[in-house]
Specification:
Chain lengths: 167, 400
């Protein structure tokens, strides 16, 4: 198998999904593609099925919260092609009032707990997930603690004064 | 929830609560099992008992203060986590390290890999009814911890290393201890292998327990010894070498069936390979200039205290680092190291501030453990215990 560069992967994706690559960058050599929530599961399926790319390993799914963006909640997937020895990062951003995206569990059974963790911490709902419950936090928790507005400590505490230190 | 044996005939199903604290689970795991006699009909794991919100805490801490958190992920091989984190930050900053630092890191990482595999294989012996091997190995593990103590002053949660290198050079005593370990450890390991590898009872107990195919293992995103035992030679050290692993000669052992016995053998073989790497690193260190233990990056590496009190420049850098006045690039990094349980990944997003904007740990135990219910359903309860110890699930890494 010949060496396929990031540009080669991007060309293939552009040919298959025209106008779906909203933002492309390459921080530290890792191809990062931002797309929309309808296309992200399709791209993952295509990357997995395509024999010349063979991104058959799901490294990680996680979330990220940018409070000041129009679409604040992000889903970030890392995929790896062991045949090409290359990684790719896919992102899709969701609105706060309707953070829904299709699940990847039918492609990768290992996505199950990764999506549960993302739901637990960011409240992102993966449609079609077989068992979308909280995983690390307790079940009766109401907030999604990794969102930026969730305080690290109880804001009513008076015994600590961190005015000069900390973020 | 995974189920098994859904027939119409009347069955007497018992619910068994295995955990959260149980002598056979080596950590805080709860599994609600439905049992038909000795056989497991369904399993429902509950995790998160020692969740400590590391990702949230990390967003509020400067980069150099995150090692105490990574220490407590996989506490059986804390230095690998620490080194992984330092390398992530160095990748973010674009730092180049001297070869000597790389080799020193390789020694520390491989020592902790040995320590981790020793615990896992020793415990597997205990759970299958052979206590003696565990006692043989734990003495050697103590010696590894003595080496860590000599290098950084701590044994279990080491907080070892700094961004840009080490906090101090290895002392002559540390080198002596490493050399002594390389000499004294192989006979003990040989004894251990003689006790287990061809032991009829142990083989009968472990072969065919929770086997898995490569396709299944890849589907579950398994990495590390578990994936290699299933038969795929995926190792981050080979595919994406970090910390100069490309300079070393070593082999990646693979199994065939992915059952408990294969995992045991793969781990044993990895211990030998780690030992080989340490020996090579010790040889390579002799050719490197003495006394180099960190990169020359004053903006990120704290100067020695003596300098801070007597040298204006060092004082300025010290102030800037501690008060977070150093410019950091706004970027995102994914860096993976081969942890003792598999690919330990750090996904870091920075916004230019003194602490991460978002930090996510790809924890191999968390991802490996989700296959556990599927592996044990249909098997015996005693096999479930064995499966858990052969997967080497560390509660700290599972729950972060």
């Amino acid at each position: 198998m010949g060496i396929i560069t990031n540009q080669g992967i991007l060309d293939k994706l552009n040919a298959r999904f025209p106008n779906a690559m909203l933002e492309v960058s390459e921080p530290k050599g890792l191809l990062t593609i931002t797309t929309d929530r309808e296309t992200l599961p399709k791209i993952v399926a295509y990357l997995k099925e395509d024999a010349s790319l063979a991104f058959r390993f799901l490294t990680d799914i996680t979330g990220v919260h940018y409070p000041e963006q129009e679409l604040p909640l992000g889903v970030v997937c890392h995929l790896q092609s062991m045949a090409l020895n290359r990684r790719i990062r896919l992102k899709a951003f969701l609105p706060l009032n309707n953070p829904r995206i299709s699940t990847l569990t039918h492609l990768f059974p290992g996505a199950n707990w990764m999506e549960r963790e993302t739901y637990d911490f960011f409240g992102i709902i993966f449609e079609g997930h077989p068992d979308l419950r909280r995983i690390l936090n307790m079940d009766d928790m109401v907030a999604f603690p990794m969102r930026k507005e969730f305080p690290l400590e109880d804001p009513n505490r008076r015994d600590k004064n961190d005015d000069f230190f900390g973020r | 929830m995974t189920t098994f044996l859904e027939d119409s005939e009347q069955r007497d199903i018992t619910t068994l609560n295995l955990g959260p604290t149980h002598p056979a689970t080596h950590g805080v795991f709860q599994n609600i099992l439905k049992m038909d006699g000795e056989r497991i009909v369904s399993a429902d794991p509950t995790i998160g008992y020692i969740h400590r919100a590391f990702e949230k805490i990390a967003e509020h801490r400067p980069f150099y203060q995150i090692t105490p958190l990574t220490d407590r992920l996989n506490y059986c091989s804390a230095p690998i986590n620490n080194m992984g984190w330092h390398m992530t930050v160095e990748k973010m900053l674009g730092l180049e390290l001297p070869k000597r630092v790389d080799y020193m890191r390789v020694i520390v990482m491989e020592l902790s890999r040995i320590a981790d595999h020793l615990i896992c294989n020793g415990i597997l012996g205990v759970d299958s009814g052979a206590y003696s091997g565990f006692l043989y190995l734990f003495e050697e593990r103590e010696k590894i911890y003595d080496i860590f103590e000599e290098i950084c002053g701590a044994r279990l949660t080491t907080n070892i290393g700094r961004i840009g290198g080490f906090e101090r050079d290895f002392s002559e005593k540390a080198f002596d201890r490493i050399r002594q370990f390389i000499k004294e450890f192989p006979p003990v390991m040989k004894d251990f292998e003689n006790l287990f590898n061809r032991n009829r009872i142990f083989i009968d107990r472990c072969t065919g327990v929770s086997p898995i195919t490569v396709e299944q293992a890849l589907g579950y995103s398994w990495t590390g010894p578990l994936l290699r035992a299933a038969g795929l030679d995926y190792d981050v050290r080979v595919l994406e070498p970090y910390s100069s692993y490309e300079d070393f000669e070593f082999e990646v052992p693979v199994g065939t069936s992915g059952d408990c016995y294969d995992r045991f053998i793969v781990r044993n073989e990895e211990i030998w390979q780690s030992l080989r790497i340490i020996e090579q690193a010790m040889e390579k260190l002799k050719k490197e200039p003495e006394g180099v233990f960190h990169a020359d990056v004053p903006e990120y590496y704290l100067p020695p205290k003596q300098e801070v009190y007597n040298n204006m420049e060092a004082l300025i850098y010290h102030f800037k680092i501690v008060m977070g006045e150093v410019e950091n690039p706004a970027t995102e990094v994914y860096h993976a190291v081969e942890g003792a349980n598999g690919e330990l990944g750090f996904y870091l997003i920075t916004d230019g501030g003194r602490s991460p904007f978002r930090l996510h740990f790809r924890r191999p135990s968390f991802i490996n453990y989700q296959a556990f219910p599927d592996l044990i359903v249909g098997g015996l309860l005693s096999d479930a215990i064995l499966t858990m110890s052969s997967m080497n699930v560390i509660a700290g890494e599972l729950d972060a």
